Amino acid sequence: MNLQMPTILANFVTRTQEGLHSAKNETCFPMAPSDNTTPDLWFPCDDRVLFTLTGSDAERYLNSQVTTDIRRLSPAHSCLAALCTPKGKLCADLHIARHGDTFWIDAPSIIAGEVQARLDKYLVSDDAILENQSSNYTLVHALGSPALPPTAFQALSQRYGHTGYDFIYPAGSRLPADPITRDALETLRIETGTPAWGREMGAHTLPPEMGEERWISYTKGCYVGQETIARLKSMGHVNQKLVGLAAEPDTPTLSVGPVLVEGKPAGSISSATWSSHLQNWIALSIISRQYAQASGRVETSSGWARITPLPFIEIR
To answer: What is the pTM of this model?
Structure first.
């Protein structure tokens, strides 16, 4: 059968920021799967390119390239990390999993070549080999408890702000029918406040603008871009940030376009969707810091909206 996300995920919603319960995001990683999780919610990560990094220097080298402390990554676990330029701008958002002496790295497939070149750039005398595995393996993610065919490698992983599992299968493996539809997955992405490459973030993004504190370690030591990101931390703010927008009652829809405050440009909507959970139009928006206060009222091309803390919902 076709899995329609708004209906199926209703049992997963634990809190909402608009219209139901307001609460601080208390999600931690890792955490045990919920007993009442429906296990057949899965999707192929076909918008991600898959690399492996192997060799005796793989951990040390990778730790010197990304914002997360890879040394603390447990086997069969995955973490989110930012790959940056020397000036602290984002090269890619990564998910990195450890399997024995191998690190599996996935990144947006639309910038596969740039990511490979960036990861290769500082490999000089290191005993580490980077290989693109996308033609050899398929990456799949399951929401909650795994119920997919067994495979040689799976990792506890947080995508879309929840705990689930990544599975890596040999290319051509037979998978169950009826993955989550793309439209439903996009709605889930926006509801959970998850930024996407080419939408909310890109080559001009500074990682702290995404509110992704969980993908930055401020204690691990040096990595490429660390000086800029540490300076932003000491300053206490960035000039723009990712926020949620919820349509006001008289606003019929929200769509990609400019955001105004008192008639002045304040930012833009990058993604929008109708949320069945909230019975409202919601959006992700990049807003100038001075206008990004929670509950602030902004004008869009379709009408008025209010700034809403992210995530809109939390799922377990």
So the answer is: 0.86
